[in-house]
Please model this.
Amino acid sequence: MTESTKAAPALRRIAVRDADRRHDLVVPLGQTLAHALSVFGSDPVSGGRVFGPGGEEIAVRTPVADLREGGLYTIARERPLSARERRRAAVPRGFARVGPWWVLLGCAVLVGLLSISLDQLRMPGAILLGFGAILGVFIAELRPEMGEHGRLGISFYTPLALSALAALVGVPQTFDGSAQLAIAAAAAAAALVCALTMVINTDTPRRAAASALVVVFAGLAVLWGLSILVGYGVTQTALVTLGFIPLLLRALPSALFTVDEGYQIDFGRFMTARWTVRGRVPEYRPTVSVPEIEHVVAEALARLRALTLVFSLIAALCLPAIGEPLLGDSPIERWSALALLVFIPLALLLGGRRVSGAAQRTPPRVAVMVGLIVLAVPVVIHLTGMLALGIAAGLLLGALLAAALIVPFSRNARSLGWSRTGDIAESFALAFSPVAALLAAGTLTLLQGALS
Model:
């Protein structure tokens, strides 16, 4: 072997990809990566990062001798911010900016309260709110909110709230079943606004969320409409609706993430898609592009966040309905309501352990807190004896102790055991919530009357 073959080459060949351009460079070993990038006018220090052949980030001061011979180095530049995004970034963290949509929502609530209190304003208020809902859908399309993929802003939910308020105000409360009819009309109006959003909106996450909400609101309208024919009151229908909310929340991930026919998602094995013999043989995909993945994830996130928020809102509104059978005379309904009072908070609180995002974990917990606070008012007023107050105080103290012990217990070796215990408790709560809700709603009494 000669001396020339033993000596290291004085040059290093690398390839650099900047956006859609590729540069093949031959750089002396004594230079740095920054010098090599400056040859074609690139400055990665200002708003850019360099990644090596293995995907690791490479510092621009790295010597060329440390680079891989023939390696491909990619420059990833940050997307330039628009003027609106720069204004949003300038807002301090923790500062809540009240936008026009919040003002519109507050004015809509005020108009709804005035229309309900004054009969002569009921129909004009309903027309005004309905017109505002339709106009809000078009304004939201013309001036979309800037946010992360899959995030739905207040401009998406405000037209839904206005349409529901318009239907609630427009139905006069002068006949039997008018309350159920008003709620069914509110759900139907929200479904129509979601359908309008699907038609005119070009933002795919918003269209995906609207398509999922159409099904939910349509089903809710059918349920509350049929309750008039069955003979259920507002409380009974609210209990039935509440009993199925935990099951619907639990089924959201498996219902929103879909794959091609011939595949199935094995959610028990880290969300991996595997091939199964059911159905036809799936089409082979050699490569999957990043924009395609981001598109699917954004749509699924939008559906998941929208449905989680809507189901949590329904749970918060229906949870106080437990108070009527809980304080009633029927022992079956009373004990069923007590079981429902235990199962619903358990299912909603323990379900948050399966999600990582605050947008999916926080709404059910807030719904439990708000619903229990509203429920506690009539229950505490009814319980005037010292024994009952002592039991209530003991339950409150036990809940506070349990909340204080959650964090230390979850940080040691027994956290796996507690997690399995939580899984068992959640499974029981999910299984018995619909049954307890149907019994608390007086389904047995209804069936006895129908059969007799």
In short: The mean pLDDT is 77. The longest strand covers residues 11-18.
